[in-house]
Amino acid sequence: MHSQAEQFQLYELLNALLDDELSPEARAQLEVHLCECESCRSFFESLRQTLELYHRLDEHNPALPHAVEERLRRFIKQKQICKS
Amino acid sequence: MPLQIDLSIYEDEKALLEGLRRGESDACTCMFKHFAPQMYAQALRLVGDPDEAEGVLQMSFIRACEKVAEFEGRSSLATWLYRITTNEALMRLRKQKAQRHSLDDLADSLSPDNLTYQPQEWPENPSLAVLDEELRQQLEAALQQLPESLRLVFVLRELEGFSTEETAASLGIGLSAVKVRLHRARLRLRDLLANYLRGE
Ligand SMILES: [Zn+2]
User: Fold this and answer.
1) What is the pTM of this model?
2) Structural domains of chain B, with CATH
3) A49 touches chain B (CB under 8 A)
């Protein structure tokens, strides 16, 4: 188990790992720790999975709510955004 | 942001762009059909309110049509439109902020000592392979549970691919504030997702 202070430090390091901001040495050191420490490894995995899901949010095109679509159509017409 | 574009009557994006520049209404309809849903989703994530997001969407279309002559095609049309939408959303938030007292600075004044770090338990082998509608809604809802200061940084950095520097400039905050807020946002979202996955 890590102390609260250690967890904080590790959390910052894991973020830096995600953002590819670690020096090669620091990265290697952290990777060794991840191999050895089950709790950090599963935490890191959960963080990674969370972000991966968010990155996939825009994979499929969401539908525009019908009312919003109608009002936008009218708005474009009204403002004569398109000249013709 | 990858987007499958079926430009139907326009052969490609270049043709659509030329149509827009000539002010063809088909081009406008085409742009509308293909990009409005994503622009709206993006605006909603940033401003967090459907009425405001709709206003952002409408203004973004005006801006896009005003500026289409200046668009040089260095990025894709989609990227360009999403940037316009983001700028419009941020402008609207700044205007709102000028009118209300902001608690934003609180997020940065919390030192590590008074921030509890007790990640929620993550379920074993959660089924995350399928990003179905329910999970999608959960992810969007979790975003809206973040304080604005964290949400904006997360959306720009993580979803819209802004760099730390671009995010800092867009929000008028420092680089370290961007990082602190991004890290907090990630943890909060992870915890919210953990709660959801454990069925709470
Ligand atoms: Zn550890």
Assistant:
1) 0.86
2) 13-98 (1.10.1740.10), 104-197 (1.10.10.10)
3) yes
